[in-house]
Specification:
Helix content is 41%, strand content 20%. The chain is an alpha+beta fold.
């Protein structure tokens, strides 16, 4: 009997020659597929929270524009932004709300605006593939004040 140096396939492409190829393909393809799904999930979370923050800023600006004074506008905008983000179960952590109520010191009859700026941190640590750190999401919106309504700073 001779020593078998290597196994010779009777025909190229036969099932005997392809034995074990599926498990090798799985080992090569699966990590890439998992990484692709994780990146898509992270992208969706970032897009979703940024849209939620922008919508909350718009709602806060609209509510602030309906207030009678600048101090009421600040309080109302903060409450509306917090309620809006809570209503959508946002992944936005520690939102900061800044209200520009300088328009309330403008006399009635002159166009003025109130602005709301919302910013927060988006954590990606709880996703399938853990990504360290946070990403900042910001949203800004303005709303016009009623031109002929009495205003107080």
């Amino acid at each position: 009997m001779g020593i078998a140096v290597g196994r010779v396939c009777p025909r190229r492409g036969s099932a005997q020659c392809e034995r074990g190829a599926a498990s090798v393909e799985l080992v090569v393809v699966l990590p890439g597929l998992v990484l692709l799904i994780a990146l898509m999930t992270a992208g969706w979370r970032i897009w979703s929270v940024r849209a939620q923050v922008q919508d909350a800023a718009a709602a806060g600006a609209r509510a602030a524009s309906l207030s009678s004074s600048g101090s009421n506008a600040m309080t109302t905008a903060r409450q509306v932004v917090s309620a809006d983000l809570a209503a959508v179960s946002s992944s936005c952590s520690s939102p900061a709300v800044e209200v520009d109520s300088a328009g309330f010191s403008t006399p009635a009859g002159i166009r003025a605006e109130v602005g709301v700026h919302v910013s927060c941190e988006i954590s990606l640590a709880d996703l399938l593939v853990i990504v360290p750190g946070t990403i900042r999401a910001e949203g800004h919106s303005t709303a016009r004040l009623d031109t002929f309504r009495e205003r107080r700073p």
